[in-house]
Amino acid sequence: MVESTDDGRSSQGATVKLDDITLTRAIQDGMLKLDAHRKVRAFVCAQLAGPWYGNDLSLQTNRTDKMPVNVLGEMVYAYLAQMVGNSVTSKVTPRSFFLRGEARMRQYMLDDLAREIDLARTLRLATLDALTGGIGIVRVGNRSGRELCHIEGKNYDIGQIYAARVDLDDYCRDPMSRDESEDRWRAYRFRASRSAMLQLYPEAAELIMAAPLVRDLLSDAYSSGLDELGGDTTGQDETGDEIELWEWFGYERGVVLHTTLAGAVDSLKALRPVAEYEGYENGPIHLLSFRHIPNNAQPLAICQQLLDMHLAMSNTSAKMVDQILSAKTAYVTRADGEQTAREMMDATDRTVFIGDPTAVMPIEIGGGMQKLYPGFDWMRAEANNASGAASMIAGQSDVSKTATGATFIANQANIRLTDMKGSVQKFTGDILSHCAWYHDMHPALRMGFSHKLPSGVGTVDVLYDSDAKEGTWTEFMFESVPVTQSAIDPNIRLARIGQLMQVGPAFLQFVAGMGGNVQAATQEIGEIFDWPAFGEFFPTQDSMMNAQILAQTTPRGAGQLPQQKQAAPSPTGGPINQVRSDMAATVPGQTSM
After folding, report:
1. Which of 62, 199, 293, 401 is paired with 541 by a 20 to 30 Å CA distance?
2. 308-320: average pLDDT
3. How many CB atoms are located within 10 Å of the residue 235 CB?
4. pLDDT band at 531 (very low <50, low <70, confident <90, very high)
5. Beta pairing, strands 161-165 & 136-142
6. Distance (Å, whole) CA 38 – CA 41
7. Burial class (CB in 10 A: 0-12, 13-18, 19+), 387
């Protein structure tokens, strides 16, 4: 039961019964609350995609012959690979030193899972949603019991973890909350086969049969209009028996409530009573928003700032194109210079003709390009009040300052895109942590997996049995590491080579402290300081610094193997350990030869 007061906030007051009418009205109000976000998303998508997106109905005109290149749109698409990466790898850190081996195995498990469910693609779509519509939504779950798992044309096996994007058109939230953190409930819509739902909910067969088919719902009042904008009319199912359903989640004093509803938005029926959700403690929905970046002190969302800058560049560029196209060149001549002017117009390279050049003067008609220069300075003042105002006071409004202003605006957009990277990585880490929770808590999961590690020229299988896992989910921290297609930047690679040469002597000293066992020393450093993972070329700077500190603090002779003695000091005085290969096996009381 959900308790609420007259203003809609949770309290110890009157109890609201969660019947079909209450839930239907709540979802209707929640969809209305997000209508503005859907309209903004449709407009932003049209702006980012440029004039090639449908007929560009958002601008109510067809200006494909003079629209400028969409610099911001190209920047967004290029930077998605840097924020999310071509693939997603996990980093699992144990809270206890003794669980480092288990952390490595959990990391392998999450890496295999992310590759199997194509997590990078889902995260890119959610990040683009957050950029254009203000919020990106991903639901994470496990195929078990009555939890339907048919996502983007793929059927998931029982016990398999999945992560799927939720479109903004299919999502709604508490209309009374000012922020996502204050939501009392959330819901998302999905489609499923009527026959499959009858198998899952045989007790609600009457309600399922009464639900309208998707093909009968030709129009949706709560839609962003992206299909119409792009001219796509094939999105509706014309032949199948799919119906629309809603998953509703309520939050009450640390408890997540859950039910499934079927029908149209204005008439929903619950297929089962509202009960406590048997799953992840915070529910299956993860949200990505760029409104709460630490160094973003402005009240506007990042996507709105990007849109403002994009519109400023786009509109000004379009005006410049208009002015250029409207400008004409004419010739004013004396009475005896008309023939000279005509010869000049028809002349080609290295043409020789008789005439008087002083009798002709070319002039520009229309254009008025000088009127646009103050506009660029105004845009720069909006982007950075201090530098823009100083430029306007100094009267610097020439062509060079115009180019500088446009470059400055593009740099500001790039800075805001850089701010988003931390939010995307935290969002990805939360999803990986959710997947790891299912692996620990849910009995329906597969009990083992096989991970391939590179070994010389081939690979070696690492078998992991979840029955033998050590530690609990709370004893590990989960992070994400985006991997781009370009791997390590060449400049960074050269810098790491120099750093590796600096740490080389210290590493050799550490190997000597381990009795000359290079493999044991490398493994020890790798488990403690995150020595380079497979696929990287050199360790990070922090790892090498930690390795150098450890090498300098390692006592002489530490980690020696059995039957191993410390050798005499080298000519330079360095501590050298070596294995006595001439020593045979001995028994107590027996001396070696």
Report:
1. 293
2. 59
3. 9
4. very low
5. antiparallel
6. 5
7. middle
Cα separation, 327 vs 321, whole angstroms: 10
Residue 275: φ, ψ to 5°: -140, 170
Could you say which of 352, 380, 408 is where a domain stops? 408
**Domain tally, the chain:** 2
Q: How far apart are CA 402 and CA 108, in angstroms?
A: 52
- SS3 assignment, position 111: helix
| Pairwise CA distance, residues 56 & 66, whole Å | 13
The answer to whether residues 556 and 516 touch, using CB atoms and an 8 Å cutoff, is no
For residue 249, give both structure tokens: 């989640």
Output the CA angle 462-466-467, nearest 5 degrees.
125
Q: Residue 577 corresponds to which tokens in the numbers above?
A: 């350990």
Contact 114, 88 (CB under 8 A): yes
Could you tell me which of 86, 289, 92, 63 has the C-alpha nearest to residue 171?
A: 289
pLDDT at position 138 is 93
Side-chain-facing half-sphere of 333: CA atoms under 13 Å: 17
pTM of the model: 0.60
Range from 301-310, 347-356, 458-467 that averages highest in pLDDT: 347-356
Q: Is residue 202 part of a domain?
A: no
For residue 513, give its domain range.
489-583
Q: Give me the residue label for tokens 């049969």.
A: 209
Give the end-to-end CA distance of the chain in Å, rounded to a whole number: 85
Residue with tokens 């999310």: 84
Alpha helices in 442-513 (DSSP H): 490-513
pLDDT at 351 over 60: yes
Confidence tier at 446 by pLDDT (50, 70, 90): low
CB of 387 closer than 8 Å to CB of 342? no
SS3 156: coil
- Out of 135-139, 368-372, 539-543, 567-571, give the one with best mean pLDDT: 135-139
Identity (one letter) of the amino acid at 432? Answer: L
Q: How far apart are CA 199 and CA 410, in angstroms?
A: 55
End-of-domain residue from the set 349, 382, 408: 408
**Are the C-beta atoms of 17 and 255 separated by less than 8 Å?**
no
